[in-house]
Write a structure and sequence with these properties.
20 strands; 20% strand; alpha/beta; binds iron/sulfur cluster
């Protein structure tokens, strides 16, 4: 019979720390580890520390020292772990240090140094889990629920308030995905820029490194993994500005999916969206000064109750001024249980349709203009598929899968799906780019674009 790994456990501190210890011990037992009563019988020791007063700090540091002397393999968790580098300064040989409420991080550290026993069922699963996306890209959900109460939306009723996933857990999932061959991580949640608000941006741990539960450090850490990192559903809070330098430096893709929904202050107020189109415009200009290659995608709703022609024209003016790269447009329709259902002045269906068509026509011109600027440039692309004529279909940093355009590479027969390539852009229309990897100038293949419209681009 194979040796069952044994963990020694030292639990110090208050009842909250005790509950953390109970959780970790429960997970250990559920995964097949046994608990050793003495240091010599343990393969590894976990010390759950207290850092409340000086005496508790001393007691915790002594306990870590004793575990190191008696056993040698020690993982430290608890409040003292959250106090900067105190533990490592005193005991540099500890295997890992985490803060309190860090069951996942502790389990990851244990797995790294003392692999969990074989489980005939769980071991059939790949470490990255079962994915429904192609092997080279994956969605990474960083939070669930939403703290907003937009009048047209029932997501908070269905999914509750924001609950952010622990930063260490998110990064471990990302690492597993990249190890399994994922080249592009698509970061999603209902409100990605609110990540960490619910836990007051508490410090978590990734591979023993303290990291705030906040979008900026998370994005920077994801950028270290070597895959493309694309941010979706980023509401433009002021702290989003801090992401733009990461994009300019190439750590994160220069792409922001910012759901703006409207530009008329009156309609935004009725929608209960805390936004101001003038501020947004100023910020978009500043973002582009810092990162000229930034691609901006947004979605809008036309025909919201009370929207008059002047509101709609304000939205068109905003689009002209903002020159967004990708735009999706929906006509408003009531959803069961949404607050907007009781609003007066519904917009007739034919007016909604007409506004949607006008918005899409305007945006088609803007998108085409912006794409034309890329002709003659070299772009890095990720190859998604082969086309039926032996060419390749790829995406650049400006193209999210399924919702944005693509880059057609007529002479891309030798390119491998899931690999990056450098291409030369030779043509553009309002959705897609046409490129080559060398040699022949390719023709535009309009037939492939027919049937698409910006309404589908949402
Ligand atoms: S529209 Fe988005 S931000 Fe508004 S409540 Fe729904 S999920 Fe939250």
């Amino acid at each position: 019979m194979s040796h069952q790994p044994r963990i020694g456990f030292v639990s110090l501190g208050c009842p909250k720390a005790l509950v953390d210890s109970e959780r970790i011990l429960t997970r250990l037992r559920a995964e097949g580890y046994s608990i050793a009563p003495t240091y010599p019988e343990a393969d590894l020791v976990v010390v759950n520390t207290c850092g409340f007063i000086d005496a508790a700090v001393t007691e915790s540091l002594d306990a870590i020292g004793e575990a190191l002397t008696e056993n040698g393999k020690v993982v430290v968790t608890g409040c003292l772990g959250a106090k900067g580098s105190v533990v490592r300064d005193f005991h540099p040989s500890v295997l890992a240090v985490t803060g309190p409420h860090a069951c996942d991080e502790v389990m990851a550290a244990i797995h790294a140094h003392l692999p969990r026993p074989h489980d005939p069922f769980l071991d059939l699963l790949p470490p990255q889990g079962i994915k429904l996306t192609p092997r080279h890209y994956a969605y990474l959900k960083i939070a669930e629920g939403c703290n907003h109460r937009c009048a047209f939306c029932v997501i908070p009723q269905l999914r509750g308030d924001l609950v952010s996933r622990p930063v260490g857990e998110v990064l471990r999932e990302a690492e597993n995905l990249v190890r399994a061959g994922v080249r592009e991580l698509l970061i999603v949640s209902q409100d990605t820029s609110a990540y960490g608000v619910d836990v007051r941006y508490r410090t978590g741990f990734w591979n023993g490194r303290p990291l705030k539960t906040h979008l900026t450090p998370l994005a920077a850490a994801l950028g270290e993994l070597g895959a493309w990192v694309r941010l979706h559903y980023v509401y433009p809070y002021p702290h989003v500005d801090a992401l733009i330098p990461l994009m300019a430096e190439g750590q994160v893709l220069p792409y922001l999916d910012v759901p703006l929904q409207h530009a008329s202050p009156r309609i935004l107020k009725a929608m209960k969206r805390p936004a101001n189109a003038d501020d947004t415009l100023t910020r978009i200009r500043r973002w582009r000064e810092i990162c000229p290659d930034l691609t901006l995608r947004s979605t809008f709703i036309v025909g919201f109750p009370g929207e008059i022609e002047a509101d709609f024209e304000q939205l068109l003016e905003f689009l002209e001024a903002a020159e967004l790269d990708r735009v999706g447009c929906f006509t408003y329709s009531p959803v069961d249980g949404a607050a907007a259902n009781v609003l007066p002045d519904p917009v007739p269906e034919d007016v909604k349709q007409e506004r949607q068509a006008r918005l899409m026509a305007l945006q088609a011109g803007i998108s085409a203009r912006r794409l034309r600027r890329k002709v003659g440039r070299t772009l890095k692309v990720l190859v998604d598929a082969r086309d039926e004529d032996g060419g390749a279909i790829a995406r650049s940093s400006a193209d999210a899968p399924e919702i944005d355009g693509v880059v057609y590479i007529e002479d891309g027969a030798a390119l491998l799906v899931g690999e990056f390539a450098e291409v030369w852009v030779v043509g553009a229309d309002e959705h897609d780019l046409y490129a080559e990897i060398g040699g022949t100038q390719i023709s535009k293949r309009k037939s492939r674009c027919s049937g698409r419209d910006l309404g589908e681009d949402a």
